[in-house]
Amino acid sequence: MTFYQAPPRLENQFTSDALLRDYLARKLPDSMRGAIEPELAHLGALSAGPLYDLQLADRENEPKLTRWDAWGRRVDTIALTPLWREAEKLAAQHGLVATAYERKHGTLSRLHQFALVYLLEPSLDVFSCPLAMTDGAARTLLAHNNAALMARALPRLTSRDPQTMWTSGQWMTERTGGSDVGLTETIARKEGDAFRLYGTKWFTSAISSQMALTLARPEGNGTGGRGLALFYVETRDDAGMPNGIFVNRLKDKLGTRKVPTAELTLDGARAIPVTELSNGVRHMAPMLTVTRTWNAVAAAAGMRRAVALAQDYAKRRMQFGAPLSEKPLHQDTLLGLEAEQSGAFLLAMRAAELLGFREADEATPHDLRLLRVVVPLAKLTTGKQAVAVASEALECFGGAGYVEDTGLPRLLRDAQVLPIWEGTTNVLSLDTLRALGEEGAVQSLADEIHRCTATAGSVLLPYARAVRAALDHAQAWLVDARRDPAQREAGARRLALTLGRTLELALLIEHAHWSPNLGSRAQLLVRRFLQNGVDLIADDLP
Ligand code: MFK
């Protein structure tokens, strides 16, 4: 008989996810859990079954740009792939954005929303991108309390009806810089009673969106981020024609191949200021907080998919007389991946939880300081983990992980964007320094880490000690580095990753302490995470 290897399959991605289920059991009241679990179980089955099959079938499809219609009109329409058209429907119907704004479960609504996202995202080929920006745009319009824009856009951005739901873009990057946004060259010119934008946006994700928030420099304003203003634009006019926004081409990217990412010319795009006509970078910050949280959740979700496939395959793949799942070395490899994924999940969800507190006006000053630090830490730490985990998970499949029609290489390609967009690891490390510079921020982070480890019993005590040692090292380094700005900048990434990983380990300990039934597994994950390394600070940097 000819041998054919059985491919990996997925079980219900909710019912088979002990970490997610335990986490929700720990965080949510029983009544809320009872109310939301049927939908989570439904999405877990969908994501593992029909949607996963559709994702594999859709593998070679890509969005298509049509610039001109048959009669010569410039239309710049984008045809999405079947998977993304399905994603548009599912996202609206299951309230992947709306849940956070309906706020049926008060402070816990963000956890509810991101549990939904966590289950669906890995089968949606990065539809999280337009959803994250949609969520960020809604939050930004609310933050600036612009009544007219809120009335026009919010019901659409937070709709559960696929026919009426809008998504939003977030156009920040220009040829001059993706990081140094203050170099933005796009001009905002007052023409009559409207502003019109002129310039080039160089890297605009999900250009299929109906609106965007973007930055432009009102004529006469000064340089830098303070001279920019935050604008609202709709991509089409009332007749459905381009609003002075032209797609020069779609980007040919390493991954996120379903996301229509464009280079745009803005040639008189009608735009409305969201707030004052300056300090655009600062006014964009509410958006960054939301999209960076999404980035962290998407990273954890992508890792979960990679680990679930590798774990399943290990049971099906026989080598040297036994399934891989029975080989000690492979077991250790899988455990290492699961530990990274678990830490990433807990950190991403902590960011989501704090965001929920703030949005329900129930955050303490400590929570607010913590949120400001935890978001960049979660974004940068989980982004790096996502790439490493996807790479290692592909290796678990040997050659099959390197072959396109298994659907596996996508995991790595789509992970690679996570440390890049929404701010690179280095930019987020500098943002962490900026956040830690705010009064009380270091103390709030230290308090959080101590809170997670304070009750660790004897079994977890050695790990709690490792957490405190890493935190002490980071705090001492921060004090030392104050003396030398160059040293401080050079060490910013090591510091940020150390703090991110230390916080993940602390959250893993907190979770293991809570889970007496699953105690031994949770403890194993704590130990394995520490073995992967936590303290990355180098004291002897030049
Ligand atoms: C899977 C999920 C997918 C997620 C969606 C993916 C879609 C992809 C879309 C994109 O990638 S859009 C491009 C994303 N681009 C970035 O994230 C930009 C990266 N660069 C930075 O973040 C820089 O740090 C920054 C542009 C903010 C630096 O600009 P500036 O002009 O040098 O800012 P500056 O002077 O440091 O800060 C200006 C103000 O903003 C300050 O406040 P004040 O005016 O009151 O002094 C800062 O405190 C404030 N600020 C900056 N970053 C902040 C912030 N406030 C809160 N949170 C932050 N993160």
Features:
542 residues; alpha+beta; Butyryl-CoA Dehydrogenase, subunit A, domain 2; five-stranded mixed barrel; two-stranded antiparallel sheet; binds decanoyl-CoA
Question: How would you characterize this protein structure?
Answer:
The chain has helices spanning 18-27, 30-48, 50-57, 82-93, 98-102, 109-120, 128-144, 147-157, 280-316, 328-359, 365-395, 409-415, 425-436, 441-453, 461-481, 485-490, 492-514, 519-532; strands spanning 64-68, 74-79, 168-171, 187-191, 194-204, 211-218, 229-234, 245-250, 262-273, 318-319, 322-323. By secondary structure, it is of the alpha+beta class. Among the domains are: 168-280, Beta Barrel (Butyryl-CoA Dehydrogenase, subunit A, domain 2); 426-532. The strands form three sheets. It has a five-stranded mixed barrel with strand order 4-5-9-7-6. The longest helix is centred in the middle third of the chain and has 37 residues, at 280-316. The model has no long low-confidence stretch (mean pLDDT 96). It binds decanoyl-CoA. Residues 128-129, 132-133, 170, 172-173, 178-179, 181-182, 205, 224-225, 279, 281-282, 285, 288, 291, 294-295, 298, 421-423, 427, 431 line the site of decanoyl-CoA.
- Described by the principal axes of the CA atoms, the overall outline is globular
* Main sheet attributes: strand count, strand direction, barrel closure: 5 strands, mixed, barrel
CATH class of the domain at 168-280: Mainly Beta
Q: Which strand-content bin applies to the residues?
A: 5-15%
- Work out the helix count: 18
